[in-house]
Design goal:
- The complex is a heterodimer.
- Chain A is an alpha/beta fold.
- Chain A has eleven helices and six strands.
- In chain A, strands 2-1-3-4-5-6 form a six-stranded parallel β-sheet, with helices on both faces.
- In chain A, α8 packs across α10 and α9 crosses α10.
- Chain A starts with a strand and ends with a helix.
- In chain B, a hairpin with a 6-residue loop joins β6 and β7.
- In chain B, α7 packs antiparallel against α8.
- The relative contact order of chain B is 0.08.
- Classes of the chains: A alpha/beta, B alpha+beta.
- Chains A and B meet through α4 and α6 of A and α8, α9 and α10 of B.
Chain lengths: 216, 431
Amino acid sequence: MRVVIAEDLFLLRDGLVRMLEAFGFEVLAAVDNGPALARALEEPSLEVAVVDVRLPPTQTDEGLRCALAARRARPGLPILVLSQHVEQLYARELLADGKGGIGYLLKDRVFDAAQFVDAVRRVAAGGTAMDPEVISQLLARSSTRDRAVNRLTPRETEVLELMAQGRSNAAIAEKLVVTERAVSKHTANIFQRLELTVSDDDNRRVLAVLAYLDRG
Amino acid sequence: MHVTRIERIERIKGAALAGARGLALSLLSLAGSLVLFVTSVVSIVCIVVGVGLFTTPPLLRLVRSHADVRRTLAARWCGVTIPRAAYRTRPGDRLPGPLGQPDACLRMLRDPATWRNLRWLVADMTAGFGTALLPAALVAYPVEGYALAAGLWRVFDGGVWWYGFIPVSGQATALAAAVLATLIAVVAYYAAEPMLRVHFTLTRRLLAPHGAELRHRVEELARTRHDAVDASAAELRRIERDLHDGAQARLVAMGMNLGTVDALMESDPATARTLLARARADSVRALEELRELVRGIYPPVLAERGLSDAVRALALRMPVPVEPRTELPGRPEAAVESAAYFATSEALTNAAKHAAATHVRLQLTHQYGVLRIDVTDDGRGGADPEGSGLRGVARRLDAFDGTLTVNSPDGGPTSITMEIPCSLLPPGSVA
């Protein structure tokens, strides 16, 4: 799988290149600034990009802006955004076009190489990978406001969190060490209690959950 | 000294310009100052019947900007710097609610700078008017003399036209008028610009703050500086303590765990693995703590996006629904942004925590050189402006000459207004 990496800190960039290569990715380009990233994202054979939010020359949200511009030019272009901190504001901007193929993760998530690579693959396949931090903020906020979320059982809440991160039923089952059938029963219950329409599409599922958690 | 032709032309241009400017100033002095003075006096007199309480503050604010216009012109036209007035009252300084206007009115009337402004108005519409009109007249009057000599005198055939002290009644006297006009033109050539300067020097005399006022201002600055230095020292102590007890301790624990792992790798791989997992968990916790700390020092989103988006991001994190409306056409300087952000954060947290609010409205605007943040909740009210939280906010704003106004009757709602005088950097420039 062909990937572009944008990260300005040499150690991290180097680490990312090695890790992704170890998992069989082909690194098309590893750049350290916004303009170079913008050029790299035009590469037609690109399958997924891993991009740091903050990049030179502005050292502000150059990476994020490059990613959003690239997705306007090529709708659905899979991009995984990494950041030292996560903000719901940025998560919304990334999800706003509803096209999928979006990830937004804390940089710490690279500590677990297997899970991180799984997230990259999920994004490349058109799914989503939202950081648990974003989801738990949303859940915490919603639960103080909205009783429907409070009516969920602890297990259902766990399933909801994983679902909102963008995981499939199979992945949730594996993570919680239960059968896939049990997970689909939970998801059906969750959709019913939250009055969401069921959809087989992983990405639409995430958008539905996020839209629900976020309303009001 | 030898004067070149180009210099002479420049000087003629300068004199003509001084004349035009003098004319503009004299109109400003007469119309502006006269109208403002009369209406202000009437308004102040009307305080007795109540109406004045409401009309006086906006009028006095108008007087301030009228004076500020003169400051700008003085600097631009003649390079005369008139120090800014040390007003004790600022636009946001008033009790909230229906008592606000009368309170603002009384505060402004107690401010010596207000009375100095009014005295200046009187001088400006008389002496100021004269000193501004003189260069204009000097530049314009010769034109009439030449016009008479060129034949204008014929129009008044039979009558006598006085040009200065010359009664013009024929071509001979008209030529004499032209001679006088030349003399006046020479005077204008040398004196027009210095005369305009006289006008501004007079203005400075009347508008520049006096000793007592400056002393008051210095005391205020010393106090706010002391508070600001105090606050930042306390902040540094907090950061030091947090690093020492948090991230640093975790990294030490991690290092120890890794050392043990090194020793156990061969003999007891199972324990080594557990310790490795613990070391990784420690590194995650250390990062979380560092993140929190960074957010407390300077929020990353503020650095990346500026005040508007940082405040919107803050609103998204609040446990109560916050409806943010931000209309900033640029970014304030970094220190102001940071103060405004933390003040907003404190106000929102108060609303969520203590006021039991279910909805908060947040408005961020910049008008007339003042950054204004309004936070209004539908909570139970009774917020104490003297409480440690709000006092902290007031101190933070104080360092920038900002103000905090709290209106929180028992039973609610609470509205908090924060104002910081500042200018905005155009969008796109990185703070």
